[in-house]
Design brief:
Layout lengths: L9 E2 H17 L1 H6 L10 H14 L9 H15 L2 H18 L4 E2 L1 H18 L8 H11 L9 H22 L1 H6 L4 H17 L15 H5 L2 H4 L7 E8 L5 H9 L4 E7 L3 E8 L2 H9 L3 E9 H9 L5 E5 L8 H5 L1 E4 L2 E4 L2 E4 L6 H10 L5 E3 L3 H12 L5 E5 L7 H11 L5 E5 L4 H16 L4 H11 L4 E5 L4 H5 L5 H10 L1 E7 L5 E8 L4 H11 L7 E7 L3 H14 L2 E8 L2 H7 L4 E7 L3
Parallel strand pairs: 7-8, 7-12, 12-13, 17-18
Antiparallel strand pairs: 1-2, 3-5, 3-6, 4-5, 9-10, 9-11, 14-15, 14-19, 15-16, 17-19
Helix pairs in contact: 1-3, 1-10, 3-4, 3-5, 4-5, 5-6, 6-7, 7-8, 7-10, 8-10, 18-19, 20-21, 24-25
């Protein structure tokens, strides 16, 4: 361990203050970074990703004192790895980790030695990227590191640091000449600009100035910025921006990068240490990425963002953004058509976790369910899942309205509320659908249509509150094996139902719980009689939208949809495969019907 007595040595309190200033500057520049984000995908989230990464460091390592420079930077690197988001966040996390690793446990450090560590951090950041590109954050980090003079006689730390900052600014200005996509859009690289923001915040603290907490957002023409399809949409072969943390005792980043490259992934970044790493990649299948990661260590904190949806959102800013969760059984293609955003629930089979409808489709879920001795479990998304989605959307839209699965049956609403309170509660509106499956989807569709028509958040919420009691959902299941296996019904109930030849019918009650409300005796013409049961309970004179969901029973679902069309005046109707939110509890063969009257 090294101790320094030179008055020019940099100590942890001063370094901590400087890093706090840098972090605040990055967060203040978030919106501008989102606006100029066109590489590697124009999904408008680089500012959010860097702000989230630095926010994790602010609330962690920088929120408390450290005994020395080495300890402080080690904790900064660890928090950046744990909280890193996106390609830029992972690269920055590896840069900080590389600096810390090179310095070791020093209590204080001379500028010359810190310059050497920064150069080591720059090398580590480049090595973390499978296919490094010039004109990105890597170029600016390298320019800064190379210009930070390793002099033993630094008498003016700000001048010493400021010279390297100026070199970083020149490198930033040069990025459009290195990447044609930047030149075409008329912007510099967003990740590189974020790194310069970090340096500018540190420089302000070194000079005794206040850090700018408001930064002008570039006045860019959205049509110019996103007019080219190559900029506006993510490559379908790499649609999902996917990340996870991997922990183990002897992790090998090079081997992990090679294994992930074997999936045909792009934008691969492996950041961290040999015991804990953050993996980032753009892939066609997030679950395939997570399965590869699991070969190396314990996987946690999985996430997958749909970059095509993000690009559409960034290009079509202005309307209120509508969010739901994967409990909603949305008809295929409607989420894309209506710019609906979906936060996936978590699904677990034994020790293996999946992102609902992203890492595992409903069809794959039922195939696994029929073969597995282990009962699946669903759980609500973590507040961080909602926070990431809300923050991104609020960077491009005036407000967000989230329509969640019924509070009475899930903690998902509470998770979203926690995220909203930590973010921008004044612009985030949480609506309990008091429903699930097709009923929740119908409410989300109605909200998305209102947003497309230009309604503000208050009007959308009022529309949802008016439609909620009139959006009705019934379910019918012939087999009570799954509810009994899962402990949701006593074993004797299955025996009694089978002896009586009764097929129970349940309905979502006004509070949001599913309760048995009737039944049908015998199995003859069962689907047709279920359709009649529903039709008799709906008021006359209304025109309906309806969604029929099936749990691995497509033929019967189609039969039920046709029977309802014959009995009800339907303006729109869809057949969907109901996901695990219902299927994990009711089991295969269950049929679900949701109806909603059309307004006007």
């Amino acid at each position: 361990m090294t101790t320094a007595t030179s008055p020019r040595a940099i100590r942890s309190p001063a370094l901590r203050r400087a890093l706090i200033g840098g972090a605040h500057r990055v967060i203040a520049g978030r919106d501008g970074l989102n606006r100029i984000n066109v590489f590697p995908v124009a999904d408008g989230d680089t500012g959010n990703n860097l702000a989230f990464t630095m926010g994790s460091v602010l609330s962690g390592a920088l929120s408390r004192r450290a005994a020395g420079v080495g300890e402080l930077l080690r904790r900064v690197g660890e928090d950046a790895v744990d909280g890193g988001r996106g390609n830029s966040g992972a690269i920055l996390a590896q840069f900080l980790t590389g600096v810390a690793s090179d310095l070791g446990d020093r209590i204080a450090v001379a500028p010359a030695r810190l310059a050497q560590a920064v150069q080591a951090g720059a090398r580590a950041a480049r090595e973390a990227v499978a296919e490094p590109r010039e004109g990105t954050m890597l170029s600016v980090i390298a320019a800064f590191a190379e210009s930070l003079e390793a002099s033993e006689d630094v008498r003016d730390p700000r001048a010493w640091f400021g010279a390297a900052l100026e070199r970083a600014r020149r490198a930033l200005a040069h990025t459009p000449q290195q990447l044609p996509v930047l030149l075409k859009a008329g912007v510099v690289d967003a990740g590189a600009q974020g790194f310069v923001h970090l340096l500018e915040g540190i420089d302000a603290v070194l000079g005794g100035e206040s850090v700018a907490l408001e930064v002008a957002v570039p006045a860019l023409d959205p049509e110019h910025l996103h007019a080219d399809d190559a900029l506006a949409d993510a490559d379908p072969a790499h649609r999902w921006c996917s990340e996870c943390l991997i922990s183990g005792s002897d992790l090998h980043p090079a081997a992990m990068r090679e294994a992930v490259a074997g999936l045909g992934a792009s934008c691969i970044v492996v950041a961290g240490s040999t015991t804990r790493m953050r993996l980032h990649a753009h892939v066609a299948s997030p679950q395939a990425l997570f399965e590869v990661a699991a070969r190396f260590g314990q996987v946690e904190s999985t996430k997958a963002d749909d970059m095509q949806a993000q690009a559409r959102s960034a290009a079509g800013a202005g309307a209120v953004a509508i969010v739901t969760d994967s409990s909603a059984d949305l008809p295929e293609g409607l989420a894309e058509a209506l710019h609906l955003h979906v936060v996936p629930l978590r699904l677990n089979f034994g020790e293996q976790d999946y992102l609902d409808k992203v890492g595992m489709t409903p069809a794959q879920f039922y195939a696994r369910l029929r073969q597995s001795d282990v009962l699946p479990r669903t759980s609500q998304p973590a507040p961080g899942d909602f926070r990431r989605q809300f923050d991104f959307l609020l960077a491009h839209h005036p407000a967000v309205v989230y329509i969640g699965v019924a509070r009475a049956v899930s903690g998902t609403i509470q998770s979203a509320e926690t995220a909203a309170q930590r973010g921008d509660p004044a612009r985030t509106f949480i609506v309990d659908s008091a429903n699930a499956a097709g009923g929740q989807a119908l409410l989300a569709i109605a909200a998305a249509e209102a947003a497309r028509e230009g309604a503000d958040a208050a009007a959308i919420v009022a529309r949802l509150e008016a439609l909620r009691p009139r959006t009705l959902t019934w379910a019918m299941t012939r087999d009570l094996t799954m509810p009994v296996r899962g402990g949701r019904l006593p074993a004797w109930s299955k025996t009694v139902v089978e002896l009586l030849g009764l097929v129970p019918i349940a309905r979502v009650k006004p509070v949001g719980r599913l309760g048995v409300v009737g039944g049908l005796f015998g199995r003859r013409r069962l689907v047709e009689r279920f359709a009649g049961y529903i039709a008799r309970r709906l008021p006359e004179g209304a025109r309906w939208r309806l969604i029929v969901g099936h749990c691995d029973a497509a033929a019967e679902g189609a039969e039920l949809l046709q029977a309802l069309r014959e009995r009800l005046p339907c303006t729109e109707s869809w057949l969907v495969e109901t996901g695990p939110a219902i299927g994990a509890h009711a089991g295969p063969g269950t049929l679900v019907v949701s109806v909603q009257p059309l307004e006007g």
